[in-house]
């Protein structure tokens, strides 16, 4: 399955996405803001970035713009509960898809499948992780996060 970077500053939203996507067999990475996301994206072979739009430090629209400038093939799904205007800005910045919060499990899984099918080929999970459900997270985002066991 896909290596997905979830960029979300709200711990409950990260938990919800973790449950939906890990249950579908995806390998997950987590960041609390765009700054952390850029660091993870550069270090890992991320297939899809799912980002909230309103976050501290580097927000989602800025993250999308930077990713698309540095990595034109980056696949980004933008999510927001703040209305269509923010989602339109994300799409203009280069998001492959946008979703309004609250995100429905079936809807996000369908969108991920669609953007993966349209993007570059995905290599299989590493042999030491045959199911592809390993979770990765930056140290700073582990602190106090109920979505991490």
Written description of the protein model:
By secondary structure, this protein is of the alpha/beta class. The chain has a single domain, classed as Response regulator (Rossmann fold), CATH 3.40.50.2300. It has 6 helices and 6 strands; from the N terminus they run βαβαβαβαβαβα. A 6-stranded parallel β-sheet has the order 5-4-3-1-2-6, with helices on both faces. Strand 3 (48-52), helix 3 (60-70) and strand 4 (76-80) form a beta-alpha-beta unit. The longest helix has 14 residues, at 105-118. It starts with a strand and ends in a 7-residue tail after the last helix.
Short description:
This protein is of the alpha/beta class and 149 residues long. It has helices at residues 11-23, 34-43, 60-70, 84-93, 105-118, 139-142, and strands at residues 3-7, 27-31, 48-52, 76-80, 97-100, 135-137.
Main attributes?
single chain; 149 residues; alpha/beta; Rossmann fold; six-stranded parallel β-sheet; 6 helices; 6 strands; 42% helix; disordered C terminus
Helix tally equals 6
Structural class: alpha/beta
By CATH, the architecture is named 3-Layer(aba) Sandwich
Q: Compute the CA-based radius of gyration.
A: 14 Å
- Terminal Cα span: 22 Å
CATH-assigned fold name: Rossmann fold
The proportion of residues in beta strands is 15-25%
Low-confidence stretches: 124-135, 138-149
